[in-house]
Specification:
CATH superfamily of the largest domain: CoaB-like
Distance between the termini: 25 Å
Number of strands: 20
CATH architecture of the largest domain: 3-Layer(aba) Sandwich
Structural class: alpha/beta
Strand content: 15-25%
Number of domains: 2
Shape: elongated
CATH topology of the largest domain: Rossmann fold
Helix content: 25-40%
């Protein structure tokens, strides 16, 4: 298994009898070479003393949001930046609920909001609390945000009841951490992803655009990063924060996106065109705002360059993945796009369903390639991106690493 030398693990401990397991977990992390720092909630300190973790880790234990001896009284920011991974074990029902709602009323929760590192939770609670619909909803929301959920286990609990809710054993949690730091499926691979809509100006105020939110493209960027790839994200105007650790090229119009893509496409191994690029632009953009005078107005539109087709036509083209957003005849249009543009794969989805596609956090895809296809069922775009990246990796490595 992967050793953890040079890995910085921030261990968050919330209130629960399973807090005693966190001591063994911290010892195992350190044995594998990790540097461990511990943050405890006030409730956690009712079950186990901070001195235990100070002795095990050799580092001070953090518990207060504002401490007089903290540098600039900003422990939450310093620790958030320091960590390669934040593991909350045990993660109580209360902490999980507050995380889901974005609370920041203690040091641990504030760090969870401030960090750009990966976050994993080891849930631990009474089996009735775990099976309550409120807990299920909170966990689902956190999972959809890309937070790892490790466990819980099932069995006899401290309260004497039996059921799901036990925190995973420390050795099992260690194996999860080790897998997280294993080299990714796409380590060393260079991937460019386009995301979001484009805006085609009519005048200085108005433009033509579409309903793309960019959520799928941004989820793909995060999934590619997690798989070890070097990622370039070419993004149209969206209200999303790009993942940390990638190169971002911003643009507004289809022509600007074309220029950004073509400027560095020669460096890429894989190109994923998930952006909803406008097919047409206004032929002549008014230099001043057009006044509302005539009862009708006509715009002359000119066809934009097809970015995906241009990339796929390059002599040394990358592995090309297109998207087909359709309202009917999904398979027919997707296969036509695959053939005409000489793509390696195309991911097709119906966008006439208000519960998936544009403007929402869930989607479903049917992925086609020359001699096969696979359904990816409706799920969060975060999980869908992971599944699609796995398919892309399989096809890419079959061609380039036989």
């Amino acid at each position: 298994m992967t050793d953890l030398h040079n890995k910085k693990i921030l261990l968050g401990i919330s209130g629960g009898i399973a807090a005693y397991k966190a001591a063994e977990f911290s010892r195992l992390l350190i044995k594998q070479g990790a540097t461990v720092r511990v943050v405890m909630t006030a409730a956690a300190q009712e079950f186990i003393r901070p001195l235990t973790f100070q002795a095990l880790t050799g580092n001070r234990v953090y518990s207060e949001l504002f401490e007089a001896d903290a540098q600039n009284a900003m422990d939450h920011i310093d620790l958030a930046r320091w960590a390669d991974l934040l593991v909350i074990a045990p993660a109580s029902a209360n902490t999980i609920a507050k995380l889901a709602d974005g609370y920041a009323d203690n040091l641990l929760l504030t760090i969870a909001l401030a960090t750009q590192s990966r976050i994993a939770l080891a849930p631990a609670m009474n089996q009735q609390m775990y099976q309550n619909p409120a807990s299920a909803d909170n966990l689902a929301r956190l999972r959809d945000r890309g937070i790892q959920l490790w466990g819980p286990d099932e069995g006899l609990q401290a309260c004497g009841e039996t059921g799901p809710g036990r925190m995973l054993e420390p050795a099992v949690l260690l194996s999860h951490v080790q897998r997280l730091f294993q080299p990714g499926r796409l380590t060393g691979c260079r991937i460019m992803i386009t995301a979001g809509p484009t805006r085609e100006a009519i005048d200085p105020v108005r433009y033509i655009s579409n309903r793309s939110s960019g959520k799928m493209g941004y989820a793909l960027a995060q999934a590619a990063l997690d798989a070890g790839a070097a990622v370039t994200l070419v993004t149209g105007p969206v209200c999303l924060q790009p993942p940390a650790g990638l190169r971002v090229l911003k643009c507004q119009s289809a022509e600007e996106m074309y220029q950004q893509v073509m400027s560095t496409i020669g460096e890429q191994d894989i190109f994923i065109a998930s952006a909803a690029v406008a097919d047409y632009r206004v032929d002549t953009i008014a230099s001043e705002k057009i006044k509302k005078s005539a009862p009708q107005m006509q715009l002359t539109l000119t066809k934009n360059k097809d970015i995906l087709a241009a990339v796929a036509a390059l002599e040394r083209k990358p592995f090309c993945v297109g998207f087909a957003a359709e309202t009917s005849d999904l398979e027919q249009y997707a296969l036509s796009k695959l053939e005409k543009k000489k793509l390696d794969m195309v991911a097709a989805n119906r966008v006439d369903d208000p519960q998936s596609g544009f403007d929402v956090d869930i989607n479903a895809l049917t992925v086609f390639w020359t001699d096969g296809s696979q359904q990816l069922p409706r799920q969060s775009k975060t999980q869908l991106a992971i599944a699609l990246l796995e398919l892309i990796a399989q096809r890419y490595q079959r061609i380039h690493q036989p």
